[in-house]
Amino acid sequence: MLSFFCWRSSGRRTVQGGYCDRGGRFSVSGSGNDAGANVALAGAPVAAHWVGDRQIAPSLLKYGTEGQRHAFLPGIVRGERFFAIGMSEPDSGSDLASARTRAVRVEDGWRITGTKVWTSGAHRSHALMLLARTSPVDPEHRHAGLSQFIVDLDSPGLTISPIHWMNGEHHFNEVSLDEVFVPDDRVFGEIGNGWKQVTSELGFERSGPERTLSTFPVLAGLADRMGRGELPADPALGRLVARITGARQMSAAVAGQLQRHLPADVAAAVVKVLGTTTEGDIADLADLHCDDTTDPGFRDLVQTAVDHRPGFTIRGGTNEILRGVIARELGLR
Ligand SMILES: Cc1cc2nc3c(=O)[nH]c(=O)nc-3n(C[C@H](O)[C@H](O)[C@H](O)COP(=O)(O)OP(=O)(O)OC[C@H]3O[C@@H](n4cnc5c(N)ncnc54)[C@H](O)[C@@H]3O)c2cc1C
């Protein structure tokens, strides 16, 4: 089993780089990207806290209130507070502006009704960063009227139903909300500013370390075995090492841009396209070289990577969509 995809449910962690609580003031030491990369390179289980590290903590620093930072960042720093992403809906994936989950103003807060889907790890997480419509669609301005909320996953009216993968794994969920109450202090950022905020969050997501390093333990295992002569040497390995090195450097450069509050949407999209394609190609090369004589531990690792391969280029926005984004920003369409 590829440990990288495992969920850790308890325990503390020590990493180089991350979000630090210095006497109640939050700041970034190294970056969440560094922290995630270090654990990813070691093949350690990161799925439980990668959403918090990669996109929620920097989004809280960018748009959160002081109260929200104090409520969530210490738990994220300790690796004890897990977040899920509530963007996709049954009829709204690539076209997020078509989201139909709606939030209606009530006394002291909002009531939210709708369905989110493909919600990774909602069954293991504490809170959901949810995108909802707070005013009706304006066909002239489709991206207006969206807002974000931090929703406790044990809220009354919220149901989490598993969606199992073909291999039996439970990663995805459908999250249904039936008039779930969210108090005013859990409104994230500004009402009506959801599109801008979610686009910024996706910038953090798309350039995150696991967009380049998900299958790094497979690459390392392949190199070891080819080095020892257990598998035949293949020049494709060298090409993949070069590609993963380039993608990793680009991911770190984008993290630096984001940390300096500079725009990096297009660069993040490029990292996601190049990084996730490389991750998948690593899985394929290893699969090509594995047979009945390969040790069972490595074979399992490769099989897990192959099982997860289709998701690499889909999650966080499909590579087809991202190529369109890149082309548009380069003035090619
Ligand atoms: C492993 C994994 C984890 C995920 N985790 C989460 C999560 O935690 N939270 C969450 O909210 N979502 C999550 N998702 C959902 C993911 O964000 C969506 O699957 C993705 O945005 C695509 O949306 P869709 O599935 O509705 O496909 P669609 O938008 O219906 O697209 C179907 C196909 O059509 C193509 N397509 C659509 N529009 C265009 C276009 N304009 N130009 C060219 N091609 C187009 C797409 O590229 C795709 O191949 C996850 C997905 C995966 C695979």
From TrEMBL:
Q: Which cofactor does it need?
A: FAD
Q: What keywords does the record list, in alphabetical order?
A: FAD, Flavoprotein, Oxidoreductase
Sequence ranges assigned to domain Acyl-CoA dehydrogenase/oxidase C-terminal in this UniProt record: 237-330
The family database entries (InterPro entries) matched by this protein are listed as: Acyl-CoA_DH_CS, Acyl-CoA_Oxase/DH_mid-dom, Acyl-CoA_Oxase/DH_mid-dom_sf, AcylCo_DH/oxidase_C, AcylCoA_DH/oxidase_NM_dom_sf, Mycobact_Acyl-CoA_DH
Which PROSITE patterns does this chain map to?
ACYL_COA_DH_1 (PS00072)
Residues of the Acyl-CoA oxidase/dehydrogenase middle domain: 84-179
Matching Gene3D superfamilies:
Butyryl-CoA Dehydrogenase, subunit A, domain 2, Butyryl-CoA Dehydrogenase, subunit A, domain 3
Enumerate the Pfam families for this protein: Acyl-CoA_dh_1, Acyl-CoA_dh_M
A GO CC annotation given for this chain: plasma membrane
Q: Which GO terms describe its molecular function?
A: acyl-CoA dehydrogenase activity
PANTHER family from the entry?
ACYL-COA DEHYDROGENASE, ACYL-COA DEHYDROGENASE FADE34
Q: What protein family does this chain belong to?
A: Belongs to the acyl-CoA dehydrogenase family.
Q: This protein is called what? A: Acyl-CoA dehydrogenase
Origin organism of this chain? Rhodococcus oxybenzonivorans
The root-end lineage is: Bacteria, Bacillati, Actinomycetota, Actinomycetes, Mycobacteriales
